[in-house]
Amino acid sequence: MSKNKKYELDHVDIVTTHLCNNNCLFCIDKFVNTNKEIISIDKIENFLKKLKKYTDKKLTVLLLGGEPTTLPFDTLVDISNLVHKYDYRLIMSTNGKLKNKILKLIPYFESIQVTVNSDEEIDFYRDHPDKINIKIAGDKNLTMDKFNHFIEYTKDFDRRSLSMYFDTNFNELCEDEEIWNLLNKLEWKEVGSYLYTFYKGVRIKRCIVGKTNIVDEPTIPKLYPNGNYNKTWDNEDMDDYLV
Ligand code: SF4
Fold this sequence. Notes:
CATH superfamily of the largest domain: Aldolase class I
Low-confidence stretches: none
Radius of gyration: 18 Å
Number of strands: 10
Strand order of the largest sheet: 7-8-9-6-5-4-3-2-1-10
Bound molecules: iron/sulfur cluster
Largest sheet: 10 strands, mixed
Order of helices and strands: EHEHEHEHEHEHEEEE
């Protein structure tokens, strides 16, 4: 790959920690709960400085994990202040377990994607339809009835998502025939190492067999808790390996 080649970036990921308060069978973070490191503010600032030199675009910074809400509240507020100082947008993807903490964090984020498991959890966020990106899991419990109910029940939210989950061998967890009949009829767009489409206002994401890999996303720069950057971002100033 040429040293001069520049990727068109619109967002970057920060893997804040590999700690998580959940234990999903389909977890593809291979360091989950084995590595206890938490990203430091200095490492984030160093990363943001490099990004400013790389592009003058207003980027979106996505906080991921592990589970980002396991970070102390004050640390997440500090990250928000820092990211906004660099005039970037801040979003987060969370498993939704720490509901009260998530509610308190809403003012500090442009958007928070929360996985919900019940109507009660959806109702909990109903006063924040512009800030909460409400997400349902495409796992073994997903059926067409459940998806149709989700579409109806969340229609006042601005952003709604379905993520199709898979195991480390890329076997999809959802076994519902009707769901797959629907998904296979839709047109998909490849972005990074995932496929995306919309159905009735819900953004759907699914993996690409053999390509999707949270640890080595081919086009989106990721900062890891240890301060290293995604190895595939072609910039000689960047660290090259996740160790
Ligand atoms: S919530 Fe996410 S990081 Fe935590 S175990 Fe589940 S998939 Fe892994």
